[in-house]
Hints:
The chain is an alpha+beta fold. It is built from eight helices and 13 strands. Helix 2 (about 30-40) packs antiparallel against helix 6.
Amino acid sequence: MTGFxxxxxxxxxxxxxxxxxDEEGWNPGDSxxxxxxxxxxxGFLVGRLDGQPVACISAVRYGAGFGFIGFYIARPAHRGRGxxxxxxxxxxxxxDGRLVGLDGVVEQQDNYRKSGFRSAWxxxxxxxxxxxxxxxxxxxxVGGGVEIVDAATLPFGLLAAYDRRFxxxxxxxxxxxxxxxxGRTALAAVRDGRxxxxxxxxxxxxxHRIGPLYAATPAVxxxxxxxxxxxxxxxxxxxDVPDANPEATAxxxxxxxxxxxxxxxMYTGPAPDLPMAELFGVTSLELG
Length: 288
């Protein structure tokens, strides 16, 4: 492979990678790259042929024992020539010794299994304009002492501790950026000083995406979804819902959202023990 080299991604490369993902139909967030770079600045790799980028991958380290693969893309004109697998190996080498997760698109799942990944559940993107049941109050009909507040008004340590229940490693720097970037809205459901739900909505090239969406109950999840959807200016929203939480699927389809995309959450070892009944939407198919 004369002329092929693998380098770390520059700021310009991060914008390029976002564009490539958009062309694949993945609908990444407009500002996701800024939070992604904070998560692990060295975690984004680009394959260049004679200096021109032809492939990319992210291999992001979290804590001491977890990693996540994403943005695995070879440009259509350069597929089937070995550049992608070279980049894949470089990414996996970067995560050597860790439990590694990814969200595998349907056409790549068999290849991931050959690399030692096993399916844990499917994330199904449900998309549309939520219908019915909206109210103007702070709780959107949840009641029971629940208040929905701007997450930025809460101590960040509380948010980070709550997020940690749903992710296999600490990711404080990422979470801080993810919830606070311009154009985003992060809402928390609070009862007696305890967080019982968290959701973030962000603008994308197509439907606004909501993720994460955590909630103690379906009623809290519905309230957060409705409140977040107000920030989509009447347009559609999309949530990547784990099918391991069938109540989440039933809830959002009952609100009028429909499946538009699917990926398998896969790991190289046993799936992390997460509270799936409270996981209504994953944060990102790119970084977990």
